[in-house]
Write a structure and sequence with these properties.
- The complex is a heterodimer of chains A (about 475) and B (about 210).
- Chain A is of the alpha+beta class.
- Helices cover about 55% and strands about 10% of the residues of chain A.
- In chain A, the strands form 4 sheets. In chain A, strands 1, 2, 3, 4 and 6 form a 5-stranded antiparallel β-sheet that branches. A 3-stranded mixed β-sheet of chain A has the order 5-9-8, covered by helices on one side. A two-stranded antiparallel sheet of chain A has the order 7-10.
- In chain A, helix 3 crosses helix 5 and helix 14 (about 350-365) packs antiparallel against helix 15 (about 370-380).
- The longest helix of chain A is centred in the middle third of the chain and has 22 residues, at about 295-320.
- The termini of chain A are far apart.
- The model of chain A is unreliable at about 45-55 and about 110-135 (pLDDT under 50).
- Chain B is mostly helical.
- Chain B has 9 helices and no strands.
- The longest helix of chain B has 23 residues, at about 55-75.
- The chains are: A alpha+beta (about 475), B mainly alpha (about 210).
- The interface between A and B is medium-sized, with 25 and 27 residues.
């Protein structure tokens, strides 16, 4: 009976995998080869199989994610000769296994899964962008561990530092976990605590990733991949410093007034260190719980408006790309305000990047085709548009046009329009399939910012007067 | 003239204090008993009445730290901890007390706590080991289970613990936080094994 059930589940998994995985028309039109490879690896025991904290390709979501990784790796060898392809197939299997057993990449993979789940369709994102979605999910900390962190950071136990402190975490954070507490002065706070030794793991995992990708070193875009990995490592390591996040949080808070209805929690410095971050607790719910209440169009539009104001306020005033559009970072508050939390993964554009970013936007707004082509060439790391294959230029430019659509439309823009959203995804798929992935490292974050935000608003089925908001927010700040 | 008990205690404390300073400053290996006696204002012969060797001296400090750590542990224990958490609290409380000695502890522990058979067993080291294991037994007993024979559980625990100590003495991360992750993972492994949870007796690998 049990065996039969398992068999049925396996068959079901295979069907779902086949439906979800990308297909390679030439060599694997049904996707069956890839699905079988993933399942074969998934069913292999790793030596630590009884150690539940280490991720294996156990869940279907993880298998789908691994499938996309495999697909991407394979696509890099499409033009290679037969021998090279065989070598790469062997490497692929090894790489997937390594990928599955890396330190905290369990969390990273789950994060990619989250990103995919955030999109209404499973999307084969370009690999570096998928990677940038990775977050290091630390193992849960028991209270004794939390107490040790407190003794080191404050010289006192949590119950001494706070008037009340919940032993159980109420949320997982990317690098640790969040506990509710109350200050002696009565304020309710959320205390984020980092799992020890995370920076070392990030470095080790990225070292493994470089190894894993080593067979690509002869391909034309290897330097580009290295530059992106370096940027990802830099951003992730920055995220391990909570005092940096506290500074971001305070700056962001100062950018909004009560009338904006956007709230960034207050940071309590005297209860914060590089490893512990104490912020005002914002009551409310995340997007899924919000949608479960079956909100009307007015409410959906209201929060879409607030989200747009919030992100473009940060962009124009602080020159930031809030590069972690994780749905958990937005709080729908009962009084209609939108809460923004977690500024760990925030990219501050350099002056050069800021100017460059706006030159591209302005060229598109002015319909200045030569100017836009120059900007695109630069973003793709070419000296001149004439150095690009015409098709590459065309594909990347149509992606940028898609990005600019809301900026150019007067009146209400509907981010819930399925056709609009899918066109954006189709463009990414096309660029990925054709291998047009060479770009400046900052594009990892700008793409993530754009796609994450639009996926969120799509899920929300929300509308807003985007152009009006952009004009308001950019006025005087460019 | 007989010296008073109080004077004896004072000399003993002074020797320990000066030895700790010298060990930290010059290192354990480079410090001689002569240096210590000199610093404490005693004749070398007199010092041997208190501590027969440099190892004994150092291990006395370690034992003292362990004892204080155990007291801290009993004070901090709330009774709500599960086994992994309680063992973590126990080890972490001990290490916190050992922390001032950390700069010179590597060679001391290597000599005094080595699990390999030796000609001269350091009595203080052996006592520290037994006390530590007794506390661990008590903790495990409170949670009421081991599926492994005691000697297996205790040998395994001690091996993990020595590994943790060795890593900790050399841990350059801030506040030795990487050691904390190591303790956490080590204890999860240990508790899984002695509780028989999730083990399949290696069947998964019998290919």
């Amino acid at each position: 009976m049990h065996a039969e059930n398992r068999k049925t589940t396996e068959a079901l998994n295979m069907d779902v995998l086949l439906a979800a995985l990308p297909k390679e028309s030439a060599t694997d039109p049904t996707g069956r080869q890839l699905a079988q490879l993933i399942n074969r690896i998934a069913n292999q025991k790793v030596p630590v199989n009884s150690f539940s904290r280490i991720w294996t390709l156990g869940s279907l979501q993880a298998r789908v994610t691994a499938g996309y990784l495999a697909y991407w790796l394979r696509s890099r060898f499409a033009d290679a000769d037969k021998r090279q392809q065989l070598k790469s197939a062997a490497h692929l299997a090894a790489a997937l296994k390594l990928f599955g057993t890396m330190g905290y990449l369990r969390g990273a993979v789950m994060k990619i899964g989250q990103l995919l789940a955030n999109l209404p369709e499973v999307v084969p994102e370009e690999f570096a962008e998928v990677l940038s979605a990775l977050h290091f999910e630390a193992p849960p900390m028991h209270f004794a561990m939390v107490r040790e962190v407190f003794l080191d950071e404050f010289g006192r136990e949590p119950e001494e530092v706070f008037a009340a402190f919940d032993r159980q975490a109420f949320a997982a954070a990317s690098l640790g976990q969040v506990h509710r507490a109350r200050l002696h002065s009565g304020e309710e706070v959320a205390v984020k605590i980092q799992y020890p030794g995370i920076a070392r793991t990030i470095k080790a995992d990225l070292r493994n990733l470089r190894l894993l990708l080593q067979p690509l070193c002869l391909t034309i875009d290897w330097q580009d991949t290295l530059a992106k990995l370096a940027d990802i490592e830099r951003m992730l390591l920055m995220e391990t410093d909570y005092s940096q996040e506290a500074r971001f949080g305070k700056l962001a808070r100062s950018a909004f007034t009560a009338a904006d209805q956007v709230v960034v929690p207050q940071i309590y410095d005297e209860y914060s260190t590089a490893r512990v971050l104490t912020a005002e607790y914002l009551p409310g719910c995340h997007i899924n719980d919000f949608l479960a209440t079956d909100p009307g169009q007015g409410e959906r539009d209201h929060f879409t408006h607030l989200l747009t104001v919030a992100t473009y306020r940060l962009y124009y005033r602080l020159h930031w790309l809030p590069a972690d559009p994780h749905p958990g970072n937005f709080i729908f508050m009962a009084d209609g305000r939108l809460g923004l939390i977690d500024f760990g993964c925030t990219l501050t554009l350099s002056d050069e990047e800021w100017i460059f970013s706006n030159v591209a936007i302005q060229a598109a707004l002015d319909r200045d085709l030569p100017g836009l082509n120059r900007a695109i060439a630069r973003a793709c790391r070419f000296d001149d548009p004439d150095d690009m294959e015409p098709d590459r230029l065309e594909v990347i430019r149509s992606g940028f046009y898609w990005f600019m659509e809301p900026w150019q439309q007067e009146g209400v823009f509907d981010f819930g329009d399925r056709n609009f959203f899918l066109r954006g995804i189709d463009n990414v798929i096309e660029a990925t399939r054709k291998g047009y992935t060479r770009s400046l490292p900052m594009t990892i974050w700008s793409n993530r910012f754009t796609f994450g935000g639009r996926a969120f608003c799509y899920k929300l089925k929300g509308r807003c007067e985007f152009r009006k908001i952009f004009l308001q927010e950019s006025a005087g700040w460019q | 003239m007989r010296i008073s008990e109080q004077a004896k205690q004072e000399s003993r404390a002074r020797i320990l204090e000066k030895a700790a300073e010298l060990f930290t400053g010059k290192g354990f290996e480079a410090t001689t008993t002569r240096d210590i006696a000199l610093a404490a204002g005693l004749a070398a012969g007199t010092m041997f009445n208190y501590f027969p060797s440099k190892e004994t001296l150092a291990m006395t400090m370690v034992t003292e730290a362990f004892r204080n750590g155990t007291t801290d542990f009993y004070r901090r224990r709330t009774g709500e901890e599960d086994l992994t958490e309680e063992l973590f609290l126990f080890i972490a409380s001990g290490l916190r007390r050992l922390r001032p000695l950390r700069p010179f502890l590597g060679p001391v522990l290597e000599r005094s706590l080595s699990p390999f058979p030796r000609k001269n067993v350091c009595q203080e080291g052996e006592a520290a080991r037994l006390n530590h294991l007794e506390a661990v037994q008590e903790i495990i007993g409170r949670h009421g289970f081991t599926t492994t024979p005691d000697y297996v559980a205790m040998t395994m625990y001690w091996s993990l613990y020595l590994g943790i100590l060795a890593f900790w003495t050399n841990d350059a991360s801030p506040n030795q936080e990487e050691t904390r992750a190591l303790i956490d993972y080590s204890l999860c492994v240990f508790v899984q094994v002695i509780s028989g949870a999730g083990t399949d007796r290696g069947a998964a690998h019998a290919r």
